[in-house]
Write a structure and sequence with these properties.
Blueprint lengths: L1 H21 L31 H6 L2 H44 L3
Length: 108
């Protein structure tokens, strides 16, 4: 009779263990996608500076011509500086965005 009780108890223990293993829940993974994009003001075209009017330039004196070319060169240089600043901001943003993505990917 003792052997029968031990056998029944063993079967009950195995049945309980199998039921417990059925009750485990698989972990659910939730993936989140974030859209990352640069600021809109960084994506505008660089300003195109028109050269001096050729008729005005040809009719001007030497000083007038020099003044027209100096103004053109100054405006052109300022446009390039502004454009380069925007490009530098985009490069900095790209590095920051990549670091943020890498950081979020390494979170447990």
């Amino acid at each position: 009779m003792k052997k029968l009780n031990i056998g029944i108890i063993s079967i009950l223990i195995l049945a309980c263990l199998s039921l417990v293993s059925c009750a485990t829940v698989e972990p659910k993974y939730v993936y989140k996608t974030e859209v990352i994009s640069p600021k809109d003001e960084w994506l505008i075209d660089c300003e195109l500076i028109e050269p001096p009017n050729k008729n005005e330039y040809m009719l001007g004196t030497v000083k007038d011509r020099e003044k027209l070319l100096s103004n053109f060169a100054s405006k052109l240089m300022n446009s390039i500086i502004v454009c380069n600043k925007r490009l530098a901001d985009i490069r900095e943003w790209k590095i920051t965005a990549k670091e943020a993505i890498d950081k979020s990917a390494n979170k447990p």
